[in-house]
Amino acid sequence: MKKYILFFVSALFIDIIISNLFFKNTKYWKNSAWEKKWWRVSSSIYHHDILPNIDQIEIWGEKIKQRLITNSIGFRDKEIRKISKINPDNKRILLIGDSFIEGSGLNYKDTLAGQLESYLGSEFEILNSAVGSYSPSIYYKKIKYYIDEGYKFDQALVFLDLSDIYDEMFIKFNEQGNILTYEETKERPIYKTVFYSTGRLLRDNSTTFRFLNILSDRTELIKNYIKLKSKASKELKKGFFETKRDDVMFYRMTHIDRGFWTFNEDRYNEIKFGLLQSEKYLIKLFKLLKENDINSTLIVYPWPTQIFYGDEYHEIYWKNFSKKNSINFLSIYDEFKKEDKRDFIFNNFIYGDIHWNLNGTTIVKDKVVKSLKF
Asked: Where are the domains of the chain?
């Protein structure tokens, strides 16, 4: 037994040396999915953020490349630039939201911020505070931080995603009232921490372990695709081999679990705490905006799931909430209602995903500029 252990350790040692000397700095070693996105960081006040003044090519989803640039306050922008606390020459419009408004999968000019900037022209300055996985408590904490720092805004557009309600259920606060980071909230036994850390260390330094990880990832992708194809074939009442890739991707786009609460009563009852928590921090946010003379609007929009199955709760809930609290409200649901739902979804959302593509983003931009006064 000792002989085999000694052989294994010696082989691993040689593997690590050869990997670091000859393979690690080659293009074949690189795997974007495993590279740490060091520019996406934790925040001790509002959970997470993006570093200021970065310019990175970022892999989003499975293989989409997007260029991510931030300005001096860490907001996504067309270029690295200094943001002053006050802009006396331009009306300043603040975008607040999650990954849809950050512009996941899109380069800046195609995002909502980029399109608004292009349409409205030089009289307006668009500042995009949105980051993926944000929710109302983070919106409030982040905007309060920048207002307290002395930054001035003229108008705020608050885009409330239906996943925000779900995300809000898992937000936790420390004694100072700041939002705990993911690292502070996760509870992982020490043996698991050691196990995963050792696994990453071997993956990043050993050719053998790297190959095994690549094989595992590819196997997982194939397995997940087969599962989706099986579910799609049952949903469409087609044979497994008659179910095409478009059928699988359409099923994937319309069957995101976190979107079911908007039309399923049981799921709706499960997320009521998230609704109450969202209400609480949206009230705080709009009160903060009003106290600082910032015109504001709450905006809601559907996912492919809602376009295909309808929405019993999300749109009407926030419409009533806005009326009750004297908040300007805008729904973009009607613009996403079409008879041929399948074609419309494929044409306006990233293939296999729930986020808008260029066309979908343009629909939102057009509705915003027609409905709001700038």
From this structure: 56-171+253-371
DSSP 173: B
Structure-token match 């959970």, residue found: 47
Angle 142-275-279 (CA atoms, 0-180°, nearest 5)? 50
DSSP 67: E
Give the chain's end-to-end CA distance (angstroms, integer): 76
- The verdict on domain 56-171+253-371 having CATH code 3.30.70.3270 is no
The residue count for the chain? 374
Q: Residue 136's closest CA among 333, 289, 339?
A: 289
Q: Is the dihedral of CA 132, 134, 138, 144 positive or negative?
A: positive
pLDDT band at 29, cuts 50/70/90? confident
CA 109/CA 118 separation, integer angstroms:
8
pLDDT digits (tens, 9 = 90+) for 188-222: 677 777 788 888 888 888 888 888 888 888 899 89
DSSP, residue by residue, 216-241: HHHHHHHHHHHHHHHHHHHHHT--GG
- The span from the CA of 105 to the CA of 66, in Å, is 6
pTM more than 0.90 = yes
- Alpha-carbon distance of 324 to 286, in angstroms, equals 13
Average pLDDT value over all residues in the chain: 93
Q: 114-133 burial, b for 16+ CB within 10 Å, e for fewer?
A: bbbbeebeeebbbbbbbbbe
Output DSSP code: residue 82.
Answer: P
Name the residue among 271, 257, 363, 288 with its Cα closest to residue 96.
288
